[in-house]
Amino acid sequence: MTLQWALGGPFGIGLGLIVSRALPPRAGHWVADRLTDRVIETEGRMYRNLRRNLAHVMPELDAESLDTLAQRAMRHTGRTYYDMLRARICDYVQDRVPVRVDQEAWEMTLAACQDERGLVIVGPHISNYDLVSQWMAARGIEMQALSLSRPGWGGKAVNRIRSHRGIEVTPITMAALRLGLDRLERGGVVVTGADRPASMDDELLPFFGKPAPMPTGHIRMAIRANARVQVISCYQDDEGIYNVLASPPLEMEKAGGRDETVRHNALRVLAIIEERIRAVPEQWLMFVPVWPDDHAVPKTS
Hints:
It is built from twelve helices and nine strands. Residues 1-12 have low confidence and may be disordered. By secondary structure, it is of the alpha/beta class. The strands form two sheets. A seven-stranded mixed sheet has the order 1-9-8-2-5-3-4, sandwiched between helices. The protein has helices at 3-8, 12-22, 25-42, 45-57, 63-86, 89-93, 103-114, 129-138, 153-164, 174-185, 217-225, 258-279, and strands at 99-101, 119-122, 143-147, 168-171, 189-192, 204-207, 210-213, 228-236, 242-246. The protein folds into two domains: 3-86, no CATH class; 98-281, no CATH class.
């Protein structure tokens, strides 16, 4: 059994919602821990990919320490799913979800979202990034989320939750990209990720010191629409609160020709993402291979 199966398998997302809302946090987190422990014990694909990715973030770790870090990340994953599924729309509106954002940062973000120029929000896969985007949608921010063109079971289930909670989800196609560009040109908001390959044909960019195929579509859209880019992420503290971090909106800087400009600005965004991941590597929940060459990853202890 995997988390993807639990969220989007034969019983569907309804069962996950019912179970999450029926169990109080302590019991719900216990169940989530047992589910992720199963993945760890069997060294399922999710766990193997997560561990390999973390090895690039923390190359100084030996095999045993890397195992411990990956296990903590798996457990964190289960708990974030529980917290997201448990929250109802009214909980977001009435501030009953465990989200904390600095008032100045929120005012800056809100102003950027309401500006006449468009805004591309980049949300790295750190901690409960979906909870935060849904929290923003509940506060009246209309956004289009660009998702993978062919999501798996878990991705489809999460997309259904996003749509139900006020986010327009569009799997990446040429039509979706044109829709996103039009939205940006009208001063709207587009949300996407930039810390995983959308395709293994993506341009190789240095990420944690090694080349990885990383998307640049968010930068190309921002340049074409004269929009800005903002990195918004969160991390969970010891109190169980998801703290929101928002970078200042970035103006796209010109650097030589078009390709050089795209690469330059993509690296600026990746630098912010790297900093966020390094701060809480056990909360970077990346379950697909990011780097094509993993021969140096320490073997499981």
